[in-house]
Amino acid sequence: MAGNDRLRAALESLRRHLDQDLFPLEIGDAAADRRVLKELRGQLDDYLLPRLAAIDAPLLAVVGGSTGAGKSTLVNSLVGTTVTEPGVLRPTTLAPTLVCNPADSPWFTSPVILPGLARVTGGAIGGAAGGGRGEPGTLRIAPVEALPPGLALLDAPDIDSVVTANRELAAQLLAAADLWLFVTTAARYADEVPWSFLRLARERSTALAVILQRVPDEAREPVAADLARLLADNGLAGTPLFAVPELALPSERARLPAAVVQPIATWLADLSVDAKARAEVVRRTLTGALDSLATRVPDLADRVERQRAGIAELRAIADKAYDVAMSAFDEGMRDGRLLRGEVLARWQDFVGTGDLMRSLESRIGWLRDRIAAAFRGRPAPDRELRVALESGVESLIRSTADGAAERAVEAWLALPAGRDVLDRSGVAVSGRLGRASADLPRRAGEAVRAWQGHVLDLVRSEGADRRTLARAASFGVNSLGVLIMLAVFSTTGGITGIELGIAGGTGVLSQKLLEAVFGDQAVRTLTQEAREDLRRRVRALLDEERARFSSLVEGLGPATETAARLREAAKAVQERGDL
């Protein structure tokens, strides 16, 4: 009993891990992954957990098979009354009917087994007890005195039904059975669909009997022999095999003569009254179902890891897009593009570039004095140059963020999982996600202005040294700050012609002036600190932009430890003792 308690605890732990949405995205064969998950959940809920909780509960025999095999007629014939509706229209069995002795009704009407199906109780169809087919999604319970206690028959939908829900329900019910009564016909016993189920019964060691219906008298022996051969070839030698002759019944609701089904009825009755035989059937099927978890659960764990890897790939795509954007911004700082256009014009207004360039190498002292005088007398160009720089840096941030968003969307659209995420999020691909956020210009402007303020603080701190105080004071903090900002972008490489000379001269000039005030080492330190501070601020902006993508997959799919926990639970089940 203690061993069973441990086994139940392991199965309950396994079931809890299966409650997650393990396969939300179209990664790999997601449809197959979800089907495997659904089947595993179903067998735990419908069979393994309830059977372990009540090992001596009545035996459930599910009558399954192909369309038109005569399952409903067989059930009615075995119990001697019409409890399930046969007919020529397909599918006939819209809702499954479970026939049991009234003494066993409390077990089957409780939601312990097949908890996902609502219960409907009814007796013989058209009889005094009422009844009927039952609605789809329900399990009709039909108590019948003729069926001995300890055994129930469940008439399942067709395994090859044209209705997908019926096929899935048939598979679910067979997975919940202690015993399969698999019905086929002399004309269709070699079809592949039934054999796919029979091989599944073999793999899971499910207790099984095969009933061959509508066998012409002249073909009885050769057909039965051939079916027995096929069973042996598929690892099912020794499976009980019953042959029912082809008979002309007077109506659709007519039952087979009692003598025809007597061998089957006797075999089932012997099971119901022989506790040892019944326990052996239960133990065989239960053990087979548990053993199957040793391969099914690790396989599911592999599928879970594939889902996690697919989601991680989407995150990595977004990460790469914004890493590329950061690299593009770094290149924009180095290639001189920020020293073009408006910045160049404002620099020329600031110091009169043409004359100064000619005097740079030989007259740096005179140059410093002239610029200092210009700084003292013309504060406006100082501010205009800062504004031009601010605008240029903001534009560079926006363009790199736009490029990252476009690359990320295009890469996601190239993957089924990415398209799935975009579809389920309701984000219009032609909308904002493919471009930078609407409020990025505001945030970029704030970040650049904060950076400029930080540069001015650096200049104030460096200029407070008494050795540089006088020289720094002659220029002013704002003007020196602008020169530091220019130095951050002074390495050219992306411009040509006359602009190259002007931009290069701009960088050299600002560098010489700063060195004259602070010294070359201090200038290198100030420039590096200013550059890294700007990079940190831009990185933070791009991280916020990237979060628009990462948030779409946040919380999707299985938890990190799910695959490992599934394997641990499978191992615990495998290490169980005897039942």
UniProtKB/TrEMBL annotation:
Matches recorded under InterPro entries: P-loop_NTPase
Full protein name: ABC transporter
